[in-house]
């Protein structure tokens, strides 16, 4: 990912200095015009905007702690994956060393870096974000989520959950229709239309219900969904398709029903998910 970030800046003509703990990994960037720093201190000294992308926060501290004095007065954008709590703790480190801090979440894989349609989430110093928005646009669509540095990581985790759930549901459906000889490409054409149309509308409507804490069952209630998912479970079982996912979904719906939401919309499932953590 770090190489992809650097390459995007180089492709747009930005003078770029790179450093990697494994020097050979920077050779391809050097061939594209990057200056390869011999040390983190040399890399940090090269620009006012410093972007870090390493394995984890332990690795991040290993790199930046020895050059904290050099980072003073500069802006550090941290694209290292971690938890919201780690991002907040690191902001404390940055404040103590007079470093403007932005925590970043890259919502794409390396091939997507540089695509203006790909989201890059940032939270932390608003002044730093506004100062370097133009540079950050090189990487993708920069979205500022607020002064709390942990918010970008929080959104990252939540959106990945949506992605994995969607992928797994799509793969289960693909296996189901594939058992009857339907090509994945044919099924996916309809799945994309369904997700972008009806499902998109449901999400938009349910979001308002969640915010209000009211779940009018004027479309398809939880009770109806429980009955309907049995059709999926039976069809999959008849075709030898693994049913762990729909069984989990049904169990969650039944917990929601047992909590008194059988006549409510599917959005009421969030009450079971929240449990005692609701604020």
TrEMBL record:
GO terms for molecular function: DNA binding; NADP binding; nucleosome binding; oxidoreductase activity. Keywords: Oxidoreductase. Transmembrane segments: none annotated. One of its GO terms (biological process) is transcription elongation-coupled chromatin remodeling. SUPFAM superfamilies: NAD(P)-binding Rossmann-fold domains (SSF51735). Residues 148-274 form the NADPH-dependent reductive aminase-like C-terminal domain. One of its GO terms (cellular component) is chromatin. Residues 1-141 form the 6-phosphogluconate dehydrogenase NADP-binding domain. Belongs to the HIBADH-related family. This is 6-phosphogluconate dehydrogenase. It comes from Streptomyces silvensis.
């Amino acid at each position: 990912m770090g190489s992809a970030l650097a390459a995007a800046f180089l492709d747009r003509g930005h003078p770029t200095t790179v450093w990697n703990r494994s020097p050979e990994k920077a050779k391809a960037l050097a061939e594209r015009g990057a200056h390869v720093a011999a040390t983190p201190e040399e890399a940090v000294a090269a620009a006012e905007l410093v972007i870090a992308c390493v394995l984890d926060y332990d690795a991040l501290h290993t790199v930046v702690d020895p050059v904290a004095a050099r980072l003073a007065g500069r802006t550090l954008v941290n694209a290292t994956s971690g938890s919201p709590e780690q991002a907040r703790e690191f902001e404390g480190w940055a404040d103590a060393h007079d470093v403007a801090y932005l925590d970043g979440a890259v919502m794409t894989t390396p091939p997507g870096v540089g695509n203006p349609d790909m989201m890059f989430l940032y939270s932390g110093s608003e002044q730093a974000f506004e100062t370097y928005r133009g540079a950050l646009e090189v990487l993708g669509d920069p979205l500022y989520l607020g002064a709390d540095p942990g918010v970008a990581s929080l959104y990252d985790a939540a959106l990945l959950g949506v992605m994995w759930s969607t992928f797994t549901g799509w793969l289960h459906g693909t296996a189901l229709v594939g058992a009857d000889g339907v090509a994945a490409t044919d099924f996916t054409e309809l799945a994309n239309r369904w997700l972008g149309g009806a499902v998109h509308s449901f999400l938009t409507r349910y979001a308002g219900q969640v915010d209000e804490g009211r779940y009018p069952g004027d479309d398809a209630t939880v009770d109806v969904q429980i009955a309907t998912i049995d059709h999926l479970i039976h069809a999959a079982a008849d075709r030898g398709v693994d049913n762990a996912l729909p069984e989990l979904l049904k169990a969650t719906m039944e917990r929601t029903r047992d909590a008194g939401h059988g006549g409510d919309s599917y959005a009421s499932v969030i009450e079971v998910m929240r449990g005692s953590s609701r604020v």
